[in-house]
Amino acid sequence: MLASIFIYGYNINIQNTNVVLCKIYLYVAFLFASVTPTILILASIDRLLISSQNVDTHLYSSKRLAYFSISISTAFWMIYHVHLLIKANIVEIYPSVFVCYYGLSATYVNYIFYSVMVMDVSFSILMIILSILSFKNVRQIRILPRQQRGQVRTMKKKDFQLLRCLFVQGIIFTFFCIFIAADFTYQAAERDRIQTSRNEAISTFIYNLFTTLYNIPFCANFYVFVSFSKAFRQDVKQLVRKMFGKDTIAPREEEPNNRENINYKAPGANSVAISN
């Protein structure tokens, strides 16, 4: 995101002046573009596990498993994108005009374009499916008879708020990644055709526009949580008050209610012990 600000906002293209910077720029860009939606998918899987009616399924929702999954996913994408450190180079597209690009091989460039399209579409479909399944689990919990609610683990309001935030993030990512995926597919299809200067100017403008739109999901997380999570807003207010020396006690979380939370009742809680 920061690199896009300098490139498309201030027309600073230092990656076009050095081969090492070019390789690092493309590698880091593709790495973060893969790791960020992967973490969203893992978070959606965690919400799916915690909203399940099966008590044993909740055991898989843990910090240790989350750290392990994120580490494995990050390592996988770091290895997967190593080819960019090898193939990326500065190429001359016009006389005395050099740009940082994937290389001169048409096969490799097509592979990059189509792989980006497949990854974006796959990420979007997975996030939407996981969010829908999580909301389905929540709905099933709410319609359970009172006699069976004691077998379901409690879900706090923060869990529901995080579930809504993840669903909104999935929608935002899906909406904006469609543009860049379509543009990459179009570039791969039109690569071998002769382009006029007018068509090239239009293609460049569309690519820059869609690239800017593609970066929106990566900077929209804060606004999503502020808009859809009351607990997050309270934490932000508390942090701001601490920064300005006005530390206050954070408000207690509201008690679970029947609409958004399922209370766990221990067996025999209402029984009366009789002793001599």
TrEMBL record:
Protein origin, superkingdom: Eukaryota
Keyword line: Membrane, Transmembrane, Transmembrane helix
TM ranges: 24-45, 65-86, 111-133, 162-185, 205-228
Chief location: membrane
GO cellular component, one term: membrane
Domain G-protein coupled receptors family 1 profile: from-to ranges: 1-225
Cellular compartment(s): Membrane
Name this protein carries in UniProt: G-protein coupled receptors family 1 profile domain-containing protein
Organism: Adineta steineri
